[in-house]
Amino acid sequence: MNEKEKKMNDETKKQISLMLMILKEILIDNGVSIGLDLDNKAILFFSTDVYCDTCKISGINVKIEDLVK
C-alpha cells in the first residue's frame, strides 16, 4: 500500500464529521449517552436517565469491528 492510499481524503473526513454531528443531535434529543466497552471492543449507547438513576447501563452495544469491516 502506498502513502496516498493510507491517507483519508477531505471528502471522507467531511462525511464522517457530518454523520457524527447528526448522531450527536439524535443522541441528545433521545437522552442517550455513549461509552466504550474496552473488554469487548464495543461502543455502548445507553439511557442517560437510567444510568444516572441506577448506575446501570440500559441500551445497545456495537462492536467496533462491525463498523469497519
Strand content: 15-25%
Give the number of DSSP strands: 3
Order of helices and strands: HHEEHEH
Average predicted local confidence, pLDDT: 92
End-to-end CA span: 18 Å
- Approximately how much helix is present in the residues? 40-55%
Task: Report the biggest beta sheet as strand number plus sense, adding barrel if it closes.
Answer: 3 strands, antiparallel
- Rg of Cα set: 16 Å
Q: Which descriptor suits the 3D outline? A: flat
Cross-sheet strand order for the largest sheet: 1-2-3
- Total count of helical runs of at least 4 residues: 4
Q: List the uncertain runs.
A: none
SSE-based structural type: alpha+beta
Short description:
The chain is an alpha+beta fold and 69 residues long.
Note the topology.
Layout: H1 3-6, H2 10-29, E1 32-37, E2 42-47, H3 48-54, E3 59-63, H4 64-68
Antiparallel strand pairs: 1-2, 2-3
Task: Quickly list its features.
single chain; 69 residues; alpha+beta; three-stranded antiparallel beta sheet
Please explain how this structure is put together.
The protein has 69 residues and is of the alpha+beta class. 52% of the residues lie in helices and 25% in strands. The protein is built from 4 helices and 3 strands; from the N terminus they run ααββαβα. The chain has a 3-stranded antiparallel β-sheet. The two termini are 18 Å apart.
